[in-house]
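Hi there,

I know you've been waiting on this one. I reran it after we fixed the sequence typo, so this is the corrected version. Both the input and the resulting structure follow.
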Amino acid sequence: MDKIIRIGTRESQLAMWQAHQVNSLLTAQGYRTELVPIKSEGDIDLVTPLYEIGVQGIFTKSLDLALLNNRIDIAVHSFKDVPTQLPRQIVHAAILERGPVKDLLVYKKDTSFLEQPGYIASIATSSVRRKAQWLRRYPQHQLHNLRGNVNTRLQKLAAESWDGAIFAVAGLERINVRPANSIDLDWMLPAPAQGAVVAVCREDDTYCLEACAAFHHKETALTTHIEREFLRTLMGGCTTPISAYAYIKDNTVHFSGELCSLDGSQFFSTSRETAAENAAGIGKAAAEEIMAQGGAEIVAQIRNATC
């Protein structure tokens, strides 16, 4: 194990946390490693809303290029940021055991505004999924764009007059910055693969593939595959408010999926259960059900509006 495995990562505190998890798993097996921080396009432009600059691959492209150019050997990503179609010559090396999947609201004073009829709250998020789900529940509220890493977004929330902002539970808890003034949004279905971390490498790199195989978590791999299959079948290459969550209990896969219009006014959902050994294709089947219900029109409208 004389070769040094170069682990590429974004520079944010959360991304470094994720890279350190992979680093620890590799060094525990006796591999020699080195972290290589790389700035992504999504970390450079912190003003433009993600849907305007094309969210697919915005946080992964720079690391993919570093992999293909042999500057690094492994890239570590939040799995929800990874496009469903990987670049040629790049493959999943390992999907780590999943962490928390929920979203949460960080509020400024209290949450009484959520129960005040007619109150126009100001809520911040850069996610079209979170915006759509929030507007479906609170159509009178105003949504504001909020970009940057976790710490930057928390600082901006503190500086603005907004009532609150939406974050992923995993992002705040992993780096121990979840404020006391926060609540889990149990009603909000997460992004496909939210809470999961993936390591990718070059497809011909048998050394790294073998190294990562030891910590590949099969249950997380199955459930996130179902969610991403649902996403891939629905989205048609466009930024769309799609939510999906699958989990396994007593060898049964439980799946829920949703598609919203951008303003939350139109909504399609599906759920299904199946034995884990029969789970192949259920993400695709669930997406096709939503498309047949009328979801195809929503996807077409969003594509025309944003692509």
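Quick highlight: Residues 42-55 have pLDDT under 50 and may be disordered.

Best,
R. S.
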